[in-house]
Write a structure and sequence with these properties.
It is built from 11 helices and 12 strands. It is of the alpha/beta class. It has a domain of about 180 residues: 3-Layer(aba) Sandwich (Isopropylmalate Dehydrogenase), CATH 3.40.718.10. The strands form 2 sheets. A 10-stranded mixed beta sheet has the order 2-1-3-12-11-4-5-10-8-9, sandwiched between helices. Strands 6-7 form a two-stranded antiparallel sheet. Helix 1 packs parallel to helix 11. The longest helix is centred in the middle third of the chain and has 20 residues. It starts with a strand and ends with a helix.
């Protein structure tokens, strides 16, 4: 019996989570789903009891949040889930703005613990006495109100995520993918931080001669995601760029209601959709649960319920391909519940 901690999230996210839980209860009754209260972690704090629940689970399925949440902080930094994997795969029938979205099938590997997301911010008065010298420009103004944020890139974390990306590309190559890692950051104008990230990744790349490596300045790469997404295989990005560009990439395959994600550490993982909590549609029963359900397929694969993961993914793909029960973000009229019922009906066909 596997144990999964379920955290519904905020706003409309619990509606998508309820759909995913309904499917999991039908598909994998051998998984014990333990739900934390909806408001647990809100405001940045997490009780010891909830931490123990997370620690005692084999994985966590998280909804989405748009506020400071202690559960996410504990799952990411407390559990050291440093690799955020965000698959970008087009499903036939999804509403893409591209004339030919077919064969879009790449994965964003996002460093999950550093960069600006270390959340060290403050007033400029705090750092003015340090008399920091810029390599260009005028630096910090001598007076006036202002704020600063710290960007952290370490050799250890960068090397770790780089090895993860190249190993992942090697695994995908065995399944017929190109075996290519594309890295991007702002190494031209941030040579000390982003340039350091690039330098470390280039060094790791030499350890994987069977994997093609290339890198692009982030401005150019944001364009390439749109004009040549079929050329991408494994995309390696620092934390903030990975967060932003995965949202951009989601637009190619139907929007934020579709892409899942998994956050992996050496001995723990949690899974969540990449979208936010969608407060504007809370209570309307129209949120697309696809991203949460596909996150559940990643979780099932992680827990070695491989057949069930494949069945759920196939059922969702079949619903999209038929285009009869899609939610309104995909051009359909189905409610969250109607979409879920159709997924369950498709799953029953595998029984």
């Amino acid at each position: 019996m596997a144990v999964v901690c379920v955290i519904p999230g905020d706003d409309a996210a619990p509606e998508a989570m309820n759909a995913a839980v309904q499917v999991l209860n039908e598909l994998t009754p051998e998984i014990d789903l333990v739900e934390l209260p909806m408001d647990e972690g809100s405001g940045g704090s997490l009780s010891d009891e909830s931490k123990n629940t997370i620690d005692g689970a084999d994985a966590t399925l998280f909804g989405a949040t748009s506020i400071r949440n202690g559960a996410i902080a504990y799952l990411r930094w407390g559990k050291k889930t440093y690799a955020n994997i965000r698959p970008i795969t087009y499903m036939s029938g999804a509403k893409s703005p591209l004339s030919n979205p077919n064969d879009i099938d790449f994965v964003i590997v996002r460093e999950n613990t550093e960069d600006l997301y270390v959340a060290i911010e403050g007033d400029l008065e705090t750092i003015r006495p340090l008399q920091l010298q810029p390599y260009r420009g005028s630096g910090i103004p001598e007076s006036g109100d202002g704020k600063f944020a710290v960007k952290v890139i370490t050799e250890e974390a960068t090397s770790r995520i780089a090895h993860y990306a190249f190993s992942f590309a090697r695994e995908r190559k065995q399944d017929g993918y190109p075996g290519r890692v594309t890295m991007s950051c702002k190494y031209n104008t941030l040579p000390t931080s982003d340039g350091f990230f690039r330098q470390i990744v280039q060094g790791v790349a030499k350890e994987y001669p069977d994997i093609e490596y290339r890198d692009f300045i982030i401005d150019d790469f944001a364009r390439r995601i749109v004009v040549e997404p079929q050329e991408l295989d494994v995309v390696l990005l620092p934390n903030m760029y990975g967060d932003i560009l995965s949202d951009e990439a989601s637009g190619l395959i139907g929007g934020l209601g579709i892409p899942p994600s998994g956050c992996y550490g050496d001995d723990y993982a949690y899974f969540e959709p990449i979208h936010g909590s969608a407060p504007d549609i809370q209570g309307l029963g129209v949120i697309n649960p696809t991203a949460t359900m596909l996150s559940a397929t990643m979780m099932l694969a992680y827990l070695r319920f491989t057949e069930q993961a494949n069945h759920l993914q196939a059922a969702i793909r079949n619903v999209y391909q038929e285009q009869l029960h899609l939610t309104r973000d995909q051009g359909g009229t189905a409610s969250t519940g109607e979409f879920t019922s159709e997924v369950l009906r498709k799953l029953a066909e595998f029984s």
